Fold this protein.
Amino acid sequence: MADFQRSMPDAQPHLARRRGLWSYTRLDAWLLLLIMVLCGYGLLILYSASGGDMGYVVRQAIRMAAGFAVMIVMAQMRPQLFARWAPALYVISLGLLLAVLLFGVGAKGAQRWLALPGFRFQPSEIVKLVLPIMIACYLASRPLPPSFRHIIISLVLIFMPVVLIMKQPDLGTSLLIAASGVFVLLLSGIYWRYIFGALAVASAGLPGLWMVMKDYQKQRVLTFLDPESDPLGSGWNIIQSKAAIGSGGLDGKGWMQGTQSQLDFLPESHTDFIIAVLAEEMGMIGVLVLLFIYLLIIARGLVIAAKAQDSFGRLVAGSVTLTFFVYVFVNIGMVSGLLPVVGVPLPLVSYGGTSIVTLMAGFGLLMSVQAHRQMISH
Amino acid sequence: MSAFDSLKDHTKEGRVFFSRALIAFVVVLILMGVLISRLYYLQVVQHDNLAALSDDNRVQLKPVSPTRGLIYDRNGTLLAENRPSYSVTLLKEKVSDVEATLSELQKLIPISERELKSFRKRLKQRRRPYETVPLRFRLNDDEIARIAVNYQRLPGVQVEADLIRYYPFGAGLVHALGYVGRINEKELKRVDATDYSATHYIGKLGIEKFYEPLLHGDVGYHKVETNARGRVMRVLERTDPVPGQDIVLHLDIRLQQAAEKLIEGRRAAIVAIDPKSGGILAMVSNPGYDPNLFVTGISTKDYKALRESPDLPLFNRALRGQYPPGSTIKPMVAMSVIDSGIVSPAHTIQDPGFFTLTRGGRHYRDWKRGGHGKVGLEMAIYQSCDVWFYDVSNRAGVDVISEYLNKFGLGQVTSLDLPEALPGILPSKAWKKKTGRGSWYSGDTLNLSIGQGWMLATPLQLATASAVMANRGVWKQPRMLKGVMQRSQREGNTIVDGSIVDISGLEGTSAVLPDIKLKNDQYWQKIIDAMIAVVHGPRGTARKVGTGLDFQIAGKTGTAQVVGIKQDEVYDAESLDERHRDHALFIAFAPADKPEIAVSVIVENGGGGSSTAAPVARKVIDAFMALKQQDADVKELVRSQ
């Protein structure tokens, strides 16, 4: 640890000369602006998706506010602080995931929640950030590109929480978390031969995955492959969401005018399927605007990552940004019928508590990396 | 820098990261492109298809049932109306657990086993999506309130208002009107499915069935927008249903009720026809049953009781009761033998009380022991002398008699709009052979001449024959329908005559018979005079009912044997079981010179026609005349004011 601290020279006096007033907030102005635009757009869509229920909008806005608070707090901390606590957080997270499996509460056959007096929370949300931090911390302190041994150890570190979350079962989250870990590995510069080798092994292992999947998960995949096979049952969601998106056309039916969403044909219209509401009411143009905002956020995230001065910051920022994109891609892909239905919310637009806070915390992490750059190289 | 750090090449790591991040960004752009092309495919390429799919989702055509036409009697009294009725229904799509909902409902309102059973049956039947299935009909206010306060707990349960047929005159009219009932799958196949898409009731019997096309009306549509749970959010377009036509019958409910009273407690039938139009003024078959029981479905218990009643209330005696007509056909038999020239109108015989085909052969007895002595045509009718008829029919043979009886509508259905009517049996040589009863014997002819043996006729046929006689051979097809009610706001309700109502497709259910042309037209009066003598002659069999009239009634009594009486056995009403007593019959028309009403009366096991049936017919005619006078008085009163 002593070594580690010594490697971070006191940069304060050096930086002070170059700071504007804004930089005291340690917030990234571009990212903040984009997130606020996204939140505003999201609330607009949610208002319509909830059938004009202001209650939903207010509750969502409160969550966003809480998210901003968490983001601001995270931005104030040095990235090294996260790195220092990573192993401990990782172990605690694994403990919490085990606790979920043992004492967790939940609905629809899945145990995802831990009930504490007063509130309940989803430990898997914490893992979404803890895992990339842990892997980045582990790899950044070793020569890069990582050796085969370090890759294997990293994979084991990824594998443990992912399996525990899969057991809940929560396929969507476990895939996102696995992705966040794998992104760190990929960004760390592991050799292409490992990447292609892993891909080959994975495709060979697909049938094995099928064997361990739960019946409802298999059903989702089958429904995805042929939604018409059960139009009133599990195929209903995807048929209705495609009808909603398609009927929106280029410019949509108008805000609050979507018949699919307002007449309740669209299931989960304010949570996972909210993009269909946007597509129906504001058409392809409305969706393109949203995608553009997402793309800008991702671009800014990658710029922050690229500009980061140590490997830990780079890897964490890169992984958080790419995971954010995975949310977007999986959600829109699933709602538009490109991917099987897995429970992944549309970031900052879907109605729902913990994911918003986690996402904002992720942005806080990005801002922390951006704000605490070391200037030693220049 | 520490030793640990020295192993790391920071510049190289940054470069590697930059290239990886760049690749990642390119992959992000590619995947974004995938999403956008997917959106393009759905929102531009597939837009029309998916927009149609979305519209199919929300827009539904909801058929609206037309209001069934009402049925009035000739004076505008309502005989069949539509009353609002509330029923509790379930929407299967919205009910998650049908059994739980049912038991929950049973705590609120009484639901019988039978209702549950037919509900489950209806639930299994083919039905349109989001169509409700009725569970219980005719809820009272209290029950409606109890369900309404529990709506929240019972998703998919609704109280629905419907118009349900109601027959205010109940059992007294059921055999004249028929009834409607809930439409079944078999009937749905027979009717135009589109037109009946919202209709729950259909005419099952009688007038309600025959005039179904007039009464039903045309279905209307509401183009509605529904949500995913089938709830109608708004009506986009509406085509109102065309209500069914209100029809007016010749029936006079006052005469009907008077006639009903006359045979109360008896198994009997009365048919009264207006000879000028063929319109049926009254048609009673006793006992009847309450048609209102059948509208929403009769309980098995009630139905069993009706079926098993020894008085056969479900049996429409007026249309389907096929009785031996007995002596009521004698005027027509006499007409046949004189008009065909077999015997002269002056033909006279000596009646010893029996007739033999061959010397010393079987005795065909007269009803009067010892005989009537010297008998001519007129006396043969007013005294109902059997032997005279044995003699002339033996001379004429069956085919001549059959031919004439057929012209009076016997042995066939002649009515326009009574689809349940039966043809009876008019025997002939050909008929006997065809039905495998062997060859015709002379004895069969003798039996036929007095309306016994194979011969069977319904009360409607006898009234019709009487009307034809009253008209001196002019045929007016017997009918219930007088016309349709034209509703106009300016002029109020007016009756449009039936003859100009387009009832195409309804006519032709039975042949319209040609008028009877006699070789000698004077014979009408000859026979009618004899029938007048039945009622007014000093020795007429129905002379007791001929008193105190300012007009004449022409009639004929009849007594039909229920059990055969063996040779030399004496018929003793007292000793016979009630069910084995003779049927009493009477046909009549009045006034004899200018007939306004023709009547037939049959009282099962009533004994003699003269003692039981004739007084009933007389009272029907009295009631008719009194009503006519009453109506004239009212008209006079209105005019004078």
About this structure: Chain B has two domains: 61-249, 256-293+316-477+512-569+576-632. Chain B touches chain A through 47 residues (CB under 8 Å).
